[in-house]
Task: inverse folding
């Protein structure tokens, strides 16, 4: 099954989605990511029992925080699938990609660029 | 431990928006346990604030430091050499830490990043409940180890009152009647005879009503 998904999606592997914390999601945006989605195992199938439920709550916390600071909580999402569902993985990647295209680039990335331009002009 | 809650983001932004160099100061003690002001929360808040101000087109330096405690001289001394490089400090410690910080570094504005709530316990993750009001005259020996001062809405010493129904308090169906808890525990210990002993009028002079309090121990002073 050689399926393709948008090349802009960068995969960060974690032992379990329970490892993903709010700070990891926020730092991604600070570093310029346009969106972050967490893909965990099916709910109830976590090898560590509650990892994917923890991740879901943390994704919700990150969404709220991004809404509060005007970046937009829609840029973060949580998905669940089982390891054999490659077509579903591709569907989620495309869905997220389309969502980000619709939302446009991360405003932090643009603000950083503006700052650099301002500094260069001043120099 | 002292239980605190994070302040809403808008309030924090309002507090620090006029400063350029800001230090976010966390505390490794109680506020870490109640997930309001430890190293992790400092990291998350600092990241969010940096992004917020950048998005507003403002350049700010927001640094993160988490001290072992903010209520002791020796730990607060750790930031003495760098404190002058900041215009303001946002402390995520309890009210004690914020004030000790303010006492120590007199010319640096200090703002609270959390609301200090009460002295309580972690019933389970994400649920903290009040257990002590620091009244200064502990009566737990006479009340089966359950405090009616902090856990009874009326703080009554010989309860329960008429508002106790099916073990719950009249102010909320979710709130246990402290005196019902006391009776249950006395029964479980086979000490129901103790319930008949009336508690004397409490000396409230050691409570907050007597003004700010202090504990002096000359035997341990240097």
Result:
């Amino acid at each position: 099954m050689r399926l393709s998904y948008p090349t802009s999606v960068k995969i960060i592997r974690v032992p379990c989605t329970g490892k993903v914390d709010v700070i990891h999601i926020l730092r991604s945006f600070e570093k310029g990511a346009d969106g972050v989605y967490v893909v965990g195992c099916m709910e109830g199938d976590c090898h560590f029992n509650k990892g994917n439920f923890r991740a879901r709550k943390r994704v919700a916390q990150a969404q709220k925080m991004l809404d509060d600071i005007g970046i937009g909580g829609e840029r973060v999402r949580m998905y669940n699938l089982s390891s054999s569902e490659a077509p579903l993985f591709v569907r989620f990647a495309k869905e997220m990609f389309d969502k980000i295209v619709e939302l446009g680039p991360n405003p932090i990335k643009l603000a950083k660029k503006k700052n650099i331009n301002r500094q260069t002009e001043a120099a | 431990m002292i239980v605190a809650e994070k302040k809403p983001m808008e309030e924090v932004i309002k507090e620090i928006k006029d400063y350029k160099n800001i230090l976010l100061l966390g505390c490794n003690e109680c506020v870490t346990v109640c997930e309001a002001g430890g190293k992790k929360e400092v990291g998350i808040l600092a990241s969010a604030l940096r992004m917020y101000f950048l998005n507003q087109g403002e350049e700010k330096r927001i640094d993160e430091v988490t001290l072992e405690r903010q209520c002791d001289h020796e730990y607060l001394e750790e930031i003495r050499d760098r404190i002058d490089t900041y215009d303001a400090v946002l402390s995520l410690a309890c009210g004690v830490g914020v004030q000790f910080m303010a006492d120590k570094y007199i010319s640096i504005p200090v703002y609270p990043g959390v609301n200090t709530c009460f002295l309580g316990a972690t019933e389970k993750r994400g649920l903290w409940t009040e257990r002590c009001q620091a009244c200064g005259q502990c009566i737990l020996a006479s009340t089966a180890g359950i405090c009616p001062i902090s856990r009874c809405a009326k703080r009554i010493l010989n309860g329960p009152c008429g508002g106790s129904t099916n073990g719950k308090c009249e102010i909320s169906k979710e709130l246990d009647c402290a005196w019902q808890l006391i009776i249950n525990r006395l029964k479980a210990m086979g000490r129901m005879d103790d319930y008949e002993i009336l508690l004397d009028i409490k000396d409230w002079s050691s409570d907050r009503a007597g003004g700010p309090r202090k504990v002096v121990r000359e035997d341990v002073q240097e």
Notes: Strands of chain B lie at 2-6, 21-27, 61-67, 88-91, 110-112, 114-124, 127-132, 168-169, 172-176.
